[in-house]
Structures are given as structure tokens and as C-alpha cells.
Write a structure and sequence with these properties.
The protein has a two-stranded antiparallel sheet. Strand 1 and strand 2 form a beta hairpin. Helix 3 runs antiparallel to helix 4 and helix 3 runs parallel beside helix 5. With 182 residues, the chain is α+β, with helices and mostly antiparallel strands.
Length: 182
């Protein structure tokens, strides 16, 4: 069994919808994109525990890219209604089926076409974040960063995707500006 390739993204572990948005990032001033091919899709599926449920094929990649664009329009787009309509279109490819098992009641996602599964789950996760705390879905405050995060800090004041990267760069920049003024 071969190990999945290393995930090159600077921020991982966010909720599924934001993790999908974070498949695009900046590195040394250059735009990077994990989802340029099915190998990158395999990395993303594996990073989110979806590799056993969905294949890393061209149809799945196309649907995941559509979901990413829809989520980007909903989160960052100039027209919230248009972004919502695009996410809703993705949600039209699946549904939740109520279940009852020996363990108790549950829910199971269903898809007429399984290649929509990963895209649908990401769109559904966005709905969950909106229902939980929409004001905690945030872009990184660093002007050169395109990443997003769900603020889980106690007081809800997180500003950076990573304090070690973007937060430190901002602090260093302010320090350098103060030193030049002096």
C-alpha cells in the first residue's frame, strides 16, 4: 500500500467547505492550486477522509471545482444571492435520508450520481457553518493571503489563518515600519 502524497497546502484541518476553498493559496507571491488534476484531488480527498468513499476521477474533479467556485462566490463574491444560488445548485445533487439503526436515529447522505458526493458534502458543510456561527467564517487578515478559516477561538477574535505565518509577517512588517520611522 502506497502512502498518499504529502498535502502541500499551508493550512489544513479547517471544516470541509473552507478546506475546499483553501485548495488555492499563495506561495512566494504565486497562486497555487491543488486541484489542477486528479492527483491533487486524491490528496484533498485523503486529507478529509473521503478517499474511501469517492474516487479521484475527472467527473468528481469537475464537480468539486464547481463546488469550490460556488463556495468562493458565496463567501467572497460581490453578490451574496448569486453565490447562494450557486451553492444551492450543488446541493441539488444530493439529499439527506433519515435512518434508524440499532445505535439510534441518524442521517445518511444520498447522491443519484456519486461523483457529486464530495462536492455536495462540502456545500452541505457550508450550510452547517452558516447555521452554527456565520460571523466566524473569515478570510485571513493578511493582504497577500487568500485562505479562509472558521474562528474557534473563545472570544472570536482570530484574524490570521496562521499566527506563525501571516500573523508573524504582519507583526514583522509593523515592527519594520516603526523602526524606519525612528
Amino acid at each position: 500500500m502506497t502512502a498518499a502524497p504529502r498535502d502541500p497546502r499551508p493550512l489544513v484541518g479547517e471544516p470541509l467547505s473552507l478546506d475546499l476553498l483553501n485548495t488555492r493559496w499563495m506561495a512566494d507571491g504565486t497562486h497555487q492550486d491543488l486541484l489542477t488534476d486528479t492527483a491533487g484531488l486524491a490528496v484533498w480527498l485523503s486529507a478529509n477522509g473521503l478517499d474511501g468513499r469517492f474516487g479521484a476521477d475527472e467527473a468528481t474533479l469537475e464537480h468539486v471545482l464547481r463546488a469550490r467556485d460556488a463556495l468562493a462566490a458565496a463567501v467572497d463574491g460581490p453578490d451574496p444571492a448569486a453565490g447562494a444560488a450557486r451553492v444551492d445548485e450543488i446541493l441539488g445533487h444530493g439529499r439527506i435520508r433519515a435512518t434508524l439503526t440499532a445505535e439510534g436515529p441518524g442521517e445518511e447522505p444520498e447522491f443519484a450520481d456519486v461523483t457529486w458526493g464530495a462536492a455536495w458534502l462540502a456545500a452541505r458543510d457550508y450550510l452547517t457553518l452558516l447555521a452554527t456561527a456565520p460571523d466566524r467564517i473569515r478570510p485571513c487578515a493578511h493582504e497577500a493571503c487568500v485562505l479562509h478559516f472558521f474562528d474557534t477561538s473563545r472570544n472570536g477574535t482570530r484574524r490570521w489563518c496562521s499566527m506563525a505565518a501571516c500573523g508573524n509577517r504582519a507583526k514583522a512588517s509593523r515592527h519594520y515600519a516603526r523602526a524606519r520611522e525612528a
